[in-house]
Write a structure and sequence with these properties.
Length: 286
Amino acid sequence: MSYKATVFRVLIASPDDVQPERSVARDVLGEWNAVHSAKRKMVLLPVTWESHSSPEMGDRPQAIINRQVLEESDLLIAVFWTRLGTPTGEYASGTVEEIEKHLEPGKPAMLYFSDAPVRLESVDEKQYRALKEFRESCRTRGLCETYSDLNDFQTKLYRHLQMKINEDPLFAVESGLNSGTEAEALVIPIPTSMSIPSLSREAVVMLKEAAEDAHGAIIRTRSLGGTAIHVNGKSLIEGNDPRSMALWEGALEELENAGLIIAASYKREVFQLTRKGYEVADKLAK
């Protein structure tokens, strides 16, 4: 069934030595859309210069990319490994220029640096040195993330994307629209000063137990024998009873839809409490 949604353009920026990560980023955006788009009335559109630019003459190549692709993007995801990229004439690389231009109007950007091992003989020393200098400069300007391999990048990006959408004002549209494509108003994430949302008994129990857990985590595992949900050292599903499974699976969905938990793993086996989740749990405990 069709539905109207706000489209947010997510620019994936990187030098050419992280092509697998670019594919992973597109997959993560696709997974978010598959799970959340219909309910949130939002679409995260992966954007790259390869897919969203067209031939044009009369200016620097990067300036054309900026005009055709960067200026219309809402969120930027940048990934680096051993290279900074090719200088543009104005910035150290095209990716760096995209980051700086994107940040100028205050739009959000998420930067990732790979710590994966590399053969020294395969590294361009000049590029690697420039990357190290840029990475150091980024540490004084905000929070960046590192990852060890593709699976680690996939898991972290999915979790961070959820957090960004739940907490960044860019994605909180009360009436009408902001920088996305014209559509109906979005479902609004619960603000931090909200009243306690309406939750089922099971959802309340799950939320309180997660708040008491040292890691604020809920673990869901699936096997041929059925589904198991554990929180704070307790198993919530009684045996393999389908009714019990449906109740607790529904509770998990309630908490996620309310923005009280987010999936912390790409396979959606681990969920963690958000700031809103802890705040609501504290109110419920009073």
